[in-house]
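Putative glucose-6-phosphate 1-epimerase
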Amino acid sequence: MDLSKLSTINALSDAVTICQFQDVKIVRIIHQTAEAGISLHGGHLVWYKPAGEQDVIWLSEKAEFDTQKAIRGGIPVCWPWFGKAGAPSHGFARNSQWTLHEHRENEKGVIVALTLEDNEETHAIWPHKFHNQLTFEFGQELKVHLTSTNTDDHEWSYSGALHSYFNIDDINTVSITGMGDKYLDSVQGDIACEGGETLTIDQEVDRVYTEPKNPIIITDPNNQRQIHIENQGHNAAVIWNPWQALSVSMADMADNSYETMVCVESTIHGQGITLAPGESHTLSTIVSVSKL
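Predicted structure tokens:
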């Protein structure tokens, strides 16, 4: 993403600015501890760079910012379902306009909260009342919390994910640990499989790990770092890399995009979470970086 093409609309504080990029508004954070950007279209974290580090979050060089589809890369919010459990795929939250609720900052970092509530458009897709708050904490580590509240007069169930794309140097050199050894293999029709404690990737991978540990660690030797991912409020971790053929087939990915990204997602899978009226549940991911 060419940050020089961001145009400032409104400076909200020393660290938080509302900007325009193509068709979307971006909440831009520039702080001594980190830099980041959140698209109000989708409530979508677009980039995150702690001080002294390169980008932790991967964004496609061909990502489209036109409000008609989800942005390729970053951290899309999959809600109120994961995958193809309904239409559109991965739910409507990542294609909805979120509202900036609050922002706070101190010497340790910046907190930005967005909200999304039911409306006529969501009722046409999913006939329930809800309130979602998406809270980002930016500093030397990244914390993302999605709190879903049932504001209806009956219970409902949901699934979803914080669909995090991570920036790596070369998929051929990366290894992942902490995801557990039991998974459903989506490439093979969701069959149940068991694997080792360490995952290396040399082909398309789309797996739902059903007994993930904390943290899941991406070891990226060429960048001389490890990315630590601690998930909460989840029952699964999805690991995805499209490999070459699928990358080529997607207009918003470069043909070789698969080489520099891998998704490790905090996921509510299957039947998901059931909330009674007034109940809430929080799905989280916490990301930090350490040197090798």
